[in-house]
Backbone:
């Protein structure tokens, strides 16, 4: 692990280390499902958020490494290999976020009676996320 990776992983602030609740604010237009609801909270555990932030910090360091490779005129195949590794790492984070959303947010929406809205928002996000 390089120094930049270690710095990125240890740079969590005390506010990030405390129990954390974050809210996704969804703006709806009249033609979108759930237009009557402008904001709904998504609550995630401190441990879950810490894991995702740590992965993103490692990816951030990896991207800096790829940038350095380009600046040092490294062979193109080596750069492409590292870009593929970054893509794979980002895909893994996306998978974790999606899994968390399904097990936590969708389940909570089902209990709260707004499952249709939550599923419509997930489908819209997947349409933008997937090629």
Residues:
């Amino acid at each position: 692990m390089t120094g930049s990776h270690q710095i990125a992983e240890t740079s969590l602030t005390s506010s990030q280390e405390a129990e954390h609740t974050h809210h996704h604010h969804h703006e709806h237009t009249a033609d979108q499902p759930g237009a009557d609801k402008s904001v709904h909270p998504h609550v995630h555990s401190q441990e879950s958020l810490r894991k995702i932030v740590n992965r993103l910090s490692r990816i951030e360091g990896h991207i800096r490494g790829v940038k350095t490779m380009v600046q040092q005129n490294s062979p193109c195949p080596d750069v492409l290999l590292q870009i593929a590794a970054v893509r794979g790492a980002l895909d893994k984070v996306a998978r974790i976020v999606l899994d968390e959303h399904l097990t936590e947010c969708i389940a909570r929406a089902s209990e709260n009676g707004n499952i249709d809205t939550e599923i419509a928002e997930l489908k819209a996000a997947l349409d933008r996320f997937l090629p």
The mean pLDDT is 75.
